[in-house]
C-alpha cells in the first residue's frame, strides 16, 4: 500500500492514495488554515471507523441480515500533552434493518474489533483504549 501527501500552502496538504483517490487535509484558521478539509487526526479516526464498518457490513451481508442503514459514531479522547495521541476511542454502531438478529450484529461488531479491523487492532496494541457498542433500529418504511 502506498500514498503521497503533498504540501499545498499554510497548513493545507493534499493526500493521494495508491488507488488514486485524493483528499484535502487542512487546519483551522488560527493555525493558518482555511478549514476546507479534515485534520489529519480526524482522518485517522475516520479510517478506523471505515475499516470497522467494512468488516461489520460484510459479515452482516454474509449472514443474510436485511440491513438498510449502518453508521458508526466515533468518540475519541486525546492526551492532554504533546504528542496529543488518542487515549481512547469508542465506536457505537447504529444498525437499521428488517428483523435483525441481535446476536448476529453483536458477533459482527465483536469480530471486527477483536480479529479483523487492522486499524483498531493496531491502535489497541499501541495502548489506545478501544471500546465498542451497538444498537438495533427496526426499519419501518
TrEMBL record:
Pfam families: OsmC. It comes from the Bacteria. This is OsmC family protein. It comes from Kineobactrum sediminis.
Amino acid at each position: 500500500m502506498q500514498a503521497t501527501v503533498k504540501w499545498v500552502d499554510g497548513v493545507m496538504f493534499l493526500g493521494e492514495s495508491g488507488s488514486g483517490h485524493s483528499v484535502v487535509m487542512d487546519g483551522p484558521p488560527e493555525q493558518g488554515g482555511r478549514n476546507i478539509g479534515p485534520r489529519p487526526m480526524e482522518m485517522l479516526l475516520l479510517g478506523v471507523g471505515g475499516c470497522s464498518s467494512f468488516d461489520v457490513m460484510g459479515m452482516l451481508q454474509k449472514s443474510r441480515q436485511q440491513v438498510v442503514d449502518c453508521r458508526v459514531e466515533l468518540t475519541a479522547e486525546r492526551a492532554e500533552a504533546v504528542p496529543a495521541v488518542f487515549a481512547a476511542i469508542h465506536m457505537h454502531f447504529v444498525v437499521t434493518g428488517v428483523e435483525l438478529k441481535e446476536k448476529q450484529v453483536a458477533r459482527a461488531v465483536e469480530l471486527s474489533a477483536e480479529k479483523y479491523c487492522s486499524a483498531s487492532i493496531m491502535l489497541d496494541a499501541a495502548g489506545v483504549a478501544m471500546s465498542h457498542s451497538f444498537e438495533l433500529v427496526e426499519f419501518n418504511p
